[in-house]
Design a protein that fits this description.
By secondary structure, this protein is α/β, with parallel strands linked by helices. The protein has ten helices and 18 strands. It has helices spanning 22-26, 52-58, 158-166, 189-197, 234-240, 261-273, 286-291, 302-312, 318-342, 363-380, and strands spanning 2-7, 37-40, 44-46, 68-70, 97-99, 105-109, 117-121, 127-130, 149-152, 175-178, 208-210, 223-228, 249-252, 279-282, 297-300, 347-352, 385-390, 393-398.
């Protein structure tokens, strides 16, 4: 089954008309995208968009062989005037299947938002799933057979991928393509990095792909360290890296701090951002978690783990520190980094980067700063991917 992407952008396209934002200003040349529309084997058109005939011609295709036009967006009727020779667009009711004379079978997939998803099976058995913008499947049953290709609003609804992965509808060789791309993420390297973290990729408008042919699916980094200063956006970045995956275990190392209302507000804000399917555990005992098999871990954060570790070894007392505290802390840090080295789980850890600020005025503050720098360096050495978040922007240091 051959797929030509006539467009890969949001319904209004990218750049948006008359939008002055930075992402739209940068969406030029190959980064400009028409509204998403899919042409399958020249016979089935999913979503009719303005300029579809010209887009097909630019891609070396023609719409003259189209036998069926189906709409996925939540509106009724065609989005634009139907070009001469094309059949009137329609919509398959949820749960029902349409069989074309060409041998394609199209089943409508129910969504958790207005609109219609389509699961298409080609004449030779290849399977593709196409979801409209803002939509995720509803009522998925486990286990499911993995699709060869999934096209979805990865940036806007990463949880759709999590739902599909949870039931096996996305497998290790499923080619996940991001469509309906809007100005939420700057085009170029930043978009590629965000999509790779979700195991997805983007292609330019006009590309033709063979559904079922093996593609180089982006590898999701198994161990990632996200560094950043206070309020830099490091926790948001870490959460974003796992929001397309189900059953994440969120490891909070800060505890509840009973009576501290400001801390409680911070914890509540973090909880509200996290997907409902994630579980949370409050602990600083990270080594057993790293050595166990299980779902991905998000550790937030190593800075508070270090505070707990320094408390436990008496690091704040100069005499204890000199006698046994420093040695004991080094052993704790080594145990943690060695567990990170051998872990088989996907891990995203957050830590503060404090070495570039003002030198602390107290000996204990300087000790903590130095030890956190050593911990971050040792932990980063065991990670495939290391990011530094500054003003909400992620800078790749490794990977």
């Amino acid at each position: 089954m051959e797929l030509t992407l006539l467009g890969t952008g949001a319904p209004t396209g990218l750049p948006r008309p008359d939008c002055p934002c930075a992402a739209c200003a940068a969406a030029l040349g190959p980064d400009a995208r028409a509204a998403t529309a899919l042409l399958l084997d020249g016979a089935l058109l999913l979503d009719l968009t303005p300029g579809a005939a010209f887009a097909a011609a630019r891609a070396g295709r023609s719409l003259t062989g189209v036998r069926q036009v189906l709409l996925s967006h939540p509106h009724n009727g065609p989005a634009v005037e139907v070009p001469a020779g094309l059949p009137q667009p329609g919509r398959v009711p949820d749960g029902q299947e349409l069989t074309l004379l060409t041998g394609h079978r199209v089943r409508a997939v129910a969504l958790d938002a207005p609109g219609t998803g389509y699961a298409v099976t080609g004449p030779e058995g290849q399977r593709l799933l196409y979801l409209p913008p803002g939509g995720a499947p509803a009522g998925l049953a486990e286990p499911a057979e993995a699709y060869d290709m999934v096209l979805a609003d990865v940036v806007g609804r990463p949880d759709a991928l999590a739902k599909l992965r949870a039931v096996g509808a996305i497998g290790p060789t499923t080619d996940v393509l991001a469509v309906h791309l809007d100005h939420d993420v700057p085009p170029g390297p930043e978009l590629g990095r965000r999509l790779a973290a979700a195991g997805a990729r983007a292609v330019p408008d006009g590309v033709t792909l063979v559904v079922g042919a093996y593609e180089d699916v982006p590898d999701v980094p198994r161990r990632t360290l996200v560094l950043g200063g206070a309020r830099s956006g490091k926790s948001v970045e870490a959460e974003r890296r796992l929001e397309a995956f189900p059953d994440v275990l969120y490891v909070a190392t800060g505890g509840s701090r009973n009576g501290d209302t400001e801390w409680s507000s911070r914890v509540a804000a973090h909880r509200e951002r996290r997907p409902g399917s994630w579980q949370t555990v409050e602990t600083c005992d990270l080594v057993p978690l790293l050595l166990e098999e299980g779902p991905p871990l998000l550790v937030d954060c190593l800075s508070l783990w270090l505070t707990d570790a320094m408390d436990s070894v008496g690091a704040w007392d100069d005499a204890v520190w000199a006698e046994r505290g420093e040695k004991a802390l080094r052993e704790r840090v080594l145990e943690l980094t060695e567990a990170m080295r051998v872990t088989r789980r996907t891990v995203v850890a957050v830590s503060n980067e404090v070495g570039s600020g003002i030198v602390p005025s107290t000996a204990s503050g300087r000790r903590y700063r130095d030890e956190l720098g050593r911990l971050n360096a040792g932990f980063a050495a065991e990670c495939e991917h290391v990011l530094l978040v500054v003003a909400g922007q992620a800078v790749v240091l490794r990977g």
